[in-house]
Known about the structure:
Chains A, B: Residues 142-251 form the Acyl-CoA oxidase/dehydrogenase middle domain. Chains A, B: Keywords: FAD, Flavoprotein, Oxidoreductase. Two copies of one chain form a homodimer. With 638 residues, chain A is α+β, with helices and mostly antiparallel strands. Chain A has three domains: 17-140, Acyl-CoA dehydrogenase/oxidase, N-terminal domain (Butyryl-Coa Dehydrogenase, subunit A, domain 1, Orthogonal Bundle); 142-277, Beta Barrel (Butyryl-CoA Dehydrogenase, subunit A, domain 2); 291-628, Butyryl-CoA Dehydrogenase, subunit A, domain 3, CATH 1.20.140.10. Chain A has 21 helices and 13 strands. Chain A has helices spanning 17-25, 29-39, 52-69, 86-96, 101-121, 124-135, 278-287, 291-317, 336-368, 374-405, 407-411, 417-424, 434-446, 458-486, 494-517, 526-532, 534-558, 563-583, 585-590, 596-613, 617-622, and strands spanning 141-144, 160-164, 169-173, 181-184, 193-202, 205-215, 227-231, 244-248, 251-254, 264-265, 271-272, 319-322, 329-331. In chain A, the strands form four sheets. In chain A, strands 1, 2, 3, 5, 6 and 9 form a six-stranded mixed beta sheet that branches. A three-stranded antiparallel beta sheet of chain A has the order 4-8-7, with no helix packed on it. In chain A, a hairpin with a 4-residue loop joins strand 2 (160-164) and strand 3. In chain A, helix 4 runs parallel beside helix 8 (291-317) and helix 15 runs antiparallel to helix 17. Chain A is globular. The two termini of chain A are 20 Å apart. At the A-B interface, strand 12, helix 9, helix 10, helix 11 and helix 12 of A face strand 12, helix 9, helix 10, helix 11 and helix 12 of B.
Amino acid sequence: xxxxxxxxxxxxxxxxxxxxxxxxxxxxxxxxxxxxxxxxxxxxxxxxxxxxxxxxxxxxxxxxxxxxxxxxxxxxxxxxxxxxxxxxxxxxxxxxxxxxxxxxxxxxxxxxxxxxxxxxxxxxxxxxxxxxxxxxxxxxxxxxxxxxxxxxxxxxxxxxxxxxxxxxxxxxxxxxxxxxxxxxxxxxxxxxxxxxxxxxxxxxxxxxxxxxxxxxxxxxxxxxxxxxxxxxxxxxxxxxxxxxxxxxxxxxxxxxxxxxxxxxxxxxxxxxxxxxxxxxxxxxxxxxxxxxxxxxxxxxxxxxxxxxxxxxxxxxxxxxxxxxxxxxxxxxxxxxxxxxxxxxxxxxxxxxxxxxxxxxxxxxxxxxxxxxxxxxxxxxxxxxxxxxxxxxxxxxxxxxxxxxxxxxxxxxxxxxxxxxxxxxxxxxxxxxxxxxxxxxxxxxxxxxxxxxxxxxxxxxxxxxxxxxxxxxxxxxxxxxxxxxxxxxxxxxxxxxxxxxxxxxxxxxxxxxxxxxxxxxxxxxxxxxxxxxxxxxxxxxxxxxxxxxxxxxxxxxxxxxxxxxxxxxxxxxxxxxxxxxxxxxxxxxxxxxxxxxxxxxxxxxxxxxxxxxxxxxxxxxxxxxxxxxxxxxxxxxxx
Amino acid sequence: xxxxxxxxxxxxxxxxxxxxxxxxxxxxxxxxxxxxxxxxxxxxxxxxxxxxxxxxxxxxxxxxxxxxxxxxxxxxxxxxxxxxxxxxxxxxxxxxxxxxxxxxxxxxxxxxxxxxxxxxxxxxxxxxxxxxxxxxxxxxxxxxxxxxxxxxxxxxxxxxxxxxxxxxxxxxxxxxxxxxxxxxxxxxxxxxxxxxxxxxxxxxxxxxxxxxxxxxxxxxxxxxxxxxxxxxxxxxxxxxxxxxxxxxxxxxxxxxxxxxxxxxxxxxxxxxxxxxxxxxxxxxxxxxxxxxxxxxxxxxxxxxxxxxxxxxxxxxxxxxxxxxxxxxxxxxxxxxxxxxxxxxxxxxxxxxxxxxxxxxxxxxxxxxxxxxxxxxxxxxxxxxxxxxxxxxxxxxxxxxxxxxxxxxxxxxxxxxxxxxxxxxxxxxxxxxxxxxxxxxxxxxxxxxxxxxxxxxxxxxxxxxxxxxxxxxxxxxxxxxxxxxxxxxxxxxxxxxxxxxxxxxxxxxxxxxxxxxxxxxxxxxxxxxxxxxxxxxxxxxxxxxxxxxxxxxxxxxxxxxxxxxxxxxxxxxxxxxxxxxxxxxxxxxxxxxxxxxxxxxxxxxxxxxxxxxxxxxxxxxxxxxxxxxxxxxxxxxxx
Lengths: 638, 638
């Protein structure tokens, strides 16, 4: 086939796919290989003809098998039968994203959210009682945080847990319809207990949101007295997960039901906590639950890998329209328009995968090493929030592009893409709405990680910016930016690519700080100032994530010993970065970072890089290492 | 609520919603009101718990009701019981897009594609035999064009229809697996006959693709001898439509089965046609079938209207996070980020709706007035192709944005958005893949409508461009562009908005012509030149559609007698155009059409326009006039 001639360096050929896959598998390669060996021989994804009930039943079976495999115990403490391997547990969940996303979510609910909350917020008495039954799935449980009226603003939850010193019990209650727990995984069918987040009330007053273990079903599966359970019904996807709604009518649980690591109530009703400030306490509690966000980012990326693998394989066999004089029709991946649909997204999938690996390492280090380093914890929370937002949006867009690239065949359930699309759609919403998460990222950056991610107190943030940060940020930036502007760049230079992303992040952040300072002026309406800057805030957060992702990419390439693989990854990095710059080149033009000529050259270079990577497209999707049985789509067959 | 103060003119208040709705209903208001009156009282959209079989059965019932209503006959000729109202028939299909899109597609297959093909390609003998039974749904039929190996390049279909002079019959045959008819609506369950597109072969040779009426099922629903029928199975959506696959093993049909308006075979096997050139003949035949593309564009827009109505209503009741000092939490549509998700898309939905109305008028005029004016026919084809691509991509993006804007509630089937999303996903593919359609648009522009849309003969196009058009296009542009660049614009001026879109279209087209001329150079590889310019080609086509859409908007506003409505629409127009310019402002910067300062001002103006239209959001979605029963989503209740 004819491809555009390129002036850029070419990639060594052939590439050692095993070597590439080792880079992609990373530190938890053994966990990945274990999943492939134990589950990779049979089809995992749901039959599209299944009813919701059938899919739920099948996921239930798989859950029991997972429990038997021992991988469910990876993330739990060793002295209760766990394996103290937090990174491994998240990697295991990420691998399930290649199979059935309903199973991934159900496993995430049981062992990540529910089990993770018991472990992170509870103490020995809860470990003794629950951890083994959680790991082996004898005790299916729920993570009951979200309420119908309170999705993003969970600090304003309305459910109450009121301590009654006379009986030594908490009374868990749903005071209004908007306080109903909603979208709760494991609630509609399987859950026997729920970790319920509620406003803690003692005779001494209110103490903010805390979590309690509340039984919701008896051994026969009937709702416990006072607990009303309903089913959320059919969803776009993830119909193997039994999402439901829970309401509590003055349900009594013993005092010991309180997960009391960060706040406890004595028998006499007196409240005490190691963290004085109520808001800080709540966000410290939330911060320990970051694993869920990390898992969702990873599984979203896995789903995008499956879709890209199917679309690239089909794009390499599907032919349409003959070139002038040609006998055979042209392979569709030889069309520039088709390459542009798939290859920049493939490059970005690589970049996000390396960032995910880095994030999992950070998670593992922070959570294995105790809670000592507050800055590391907050950086972790910030990066988890940011990468979750960027990876899930990337998955949504990529799976959509793959569907369209596969035409009518892509629309048939048998070819898998539509299920991936339907399943992952909510990933941009759950575990934190992406828009809200990016605001939290921006806030963390503006306040230099002063607070835990999660607290979107606008006024407090603005005050802090006004008082502390703006000048520093602004000064740090200007010198670099100026130097950047004066450079005459080599458009192939990886360092120039890096400086484009770094400079944008710093400039956006400095400008944001300047804008928000106006909120401190005497006649300003802080909400109006904040709201008018909201798009700026989101852009700045996204720019930060882009830079973090590039850092992780460079770490990976630096550590790569195989020159062929490193060379290929260098081209992938260039396509990833230049596609980002291309998409946001208006910003670079507006701020004098690119001339009009350079900006047009960026477009041309993206085209050239697509042509360069086209011969390696199959190698790149093979690098994901998805078991063949999990790719069982007629259009993906070789 | 606090909104950013605006320097732009404000909209008169209150707006007369009935007056707005009359503008939106347009010329075929009576058809819209008839649909509302007859069907608007009951829920139309599918129950998410239905199996595929149940949904198909329900759509079958609705089809029979539609046939009884008489609206199915709108698009057919009067002397066979039709009503000769082509615009009305398309409007009627568009209205079904507010209800159940499976029904819309099934109706489109039966009365648009299948019935339309019989009427457009057949002659009196076919009308006599089929039209009444088609209209009253006694004869469910298929439009069997697409083959497994031939989606976009339908001129290369492999199915053959070989005339046998001895028996006076055609032998319809599927010679290879890739020649199997695929994704055919009405095939898996209901179809009794199919209009089969096949290469016509006579003893004298091959004559290109023609269509024949081929029985596929007998009266008892069993496949006819030699016809193999299979089911495409579950799809992402549209599961009320029975898509299937058809293969023919030397199936014999009488000579009269050939739809013989554009080519006929005498009993002795001699072929004759009013159109000598085989390719031109085929695309003339395809051109008569443009109604399907127009219908899909309209129905996609309808689905986007439903999603926007639900998301805007929810955005006006849902509250999250309190502003500093506020008692109540903030209504989410008061956040700039939420406005930016929904309001520019709402504005563009208005623009596309007016363009759709204009397109339907053109269709009605061309098809009611006979086939006299070739240029009008080709303009119609070009605009149908372009608007179909832009409207269906807009629908995909808008429904996705609405899903995310509704958070977890948007993911529940009960709130309708996910079904709209799943149903419309394939609209970007069927009735012409959007990427291919935009290439056809570019080709029509480059060759000044020399040929029918549909013929993507790269070499022929390039030759024609080289020989004829490039200079003219280039000259026409340069003078205007220069004048434009030198202007110091008023950023609120509608004329400036118009010139931004016009200038971009002309410049892109001229540049494209210059690039493609290189293909005429002695040592050039025409495919490589074409392929390298493919992204440029798509951008130019999109720019043309944007300008056509603006023309239609201005026609509508000019004809609007109500000053309040006209004022509101003026703001909607500004938001639509400036959001387009904002999205493509890199181009304007690269080509000196906007300074960096102006470009940043465009961003600010989009924010301001969002704030201005925020109080009118409910009015604007009420303007769509969707029956309340069809909006039956818990989150959309008042």
